[in-house]
UniProtKB/TrEMBL annotation:
SUPFAM superfamilies xrefs: Zn-dependent exopeptidases (SSF53187)
Signal sequence region: 1-28
EC identifiers of the protein: 3.4.-.-
Organism from which the protein derives: Rhizoclosmatium globosum
Sequence similarity: Belongs to the peptidase M28 family. M28E subfamily.
Annotated GO biological process: proteolysis
Domain Peptidase M28: from-to ranges: 136-338
Top-level lineage group: Eukaryota
Keywords: Aminopeptidase, Hydrolase, Metal-binding, Protease, Signal, Zinc
A GO term, aspect molecular function: aminopeptidase activity
Protein name (Swiss-Prot/TrEMBL): Peptide hydrolase
InterPro entries: M28_fam (IPR045175), Peptidase_M28 (IPR007484)
Keyword Metal-binding: yes
Top enzyme class: hydrolase
Amino acid sequence: MKVMCWIRNLKYQIALLVLLSLCSCSTALHLKPASHMIHESTRKQQQQIAPPSPVELPSRPTNQPIVGSFISKIDVNHLAIWLKNLTLFPDRYYQSQNGVRAAQWIENAIQSLPVPSDAKLTTKLVHHRDILQPSVIARYESKIPTTLKGIVITGSHFDTYAKNSPQGVGGPNPAADDCASGSAAVFEALRVLTTNGFIPGRPIEFHWYAGEEEGLYGSLDIANTYAAKGIEVLSYLNLDQSGYVKPGTRPEVGIYTDYTTSAATKFLSSIVSTYSGLPQVGSQVCGYACTDNASWFLAGYNTAMAFESQDGNSFPHNDEVHSDGSPLDTLNLINMTHVSAFAKITTGFVVELSLTNTSSKEK
Ligand SMILES: [Zn+2]
């Protein structure tokens, strides 16, 4: 996430500039130094596209007994095996066949999950223009018709980048923290729900994005498509790095407040307090569109972002390898218990919003 720089990729830069050019605010072209101006103006423009959430987001959890029963089933060992297996691809670069195989592997893992008879789990690869790697979407929903409107979405990117690699930026990198960890937490949340018989209220989607490191390719495409189709989403929850605890520091959760919305962030904060067992540090900022929640935010949706730590304590070598090609972002640096806390957060967030029956917004 951190080293992902949107100016790396010309096409992404052009796409964002086109987006910004639609705004009346001329100062929106002052990029990083005026990031608040950018996201406020782009948000205003994009809100005309994405429909609002069909309900007000709750301010706190209301389904603790149900959520607790699934969180108790989160299995650190299962999560660790899944995370390790994802790192076994030599790379997961967005323009490599390994990156494609990693997507297919995630899809196969989803298809292998048991599903209760009253629920339906569907999965698909989403192909994007100009890049080789597809994103992966799993949709989990009840077979019983519901009057609850909208869907809930969580996601993480799974692609890799290898700055300083002798083979170029598409070179080998296990990228255990960035972002096998977030990918594994998202999968574990899905696994405990389908395996232990949760029947969603409104549908829940779990996304694994292609091409984040090079410019949010997968999430931009999907978020803009959903907005254009008028798909109602209560909120999107993003995970990125979720596995590193800096030596000498306490395990904690960083809550990001740029490219996120206040209602979703407030709800996420209450979810972290209730279900993660970890302290949280709020008001963290990237200062630019650093990860996939920015895509949903720019499309006009509610978004929230939970991160492995406060900004200054995060993994310092994401997206990098040694100049001889040997990896830096390795499995041995991952705290699997910490990753499991993010699976708890994800489970709490999506189950609560899947079931919430707060009254519809006045329109
Ligand atoms: Zn990342």
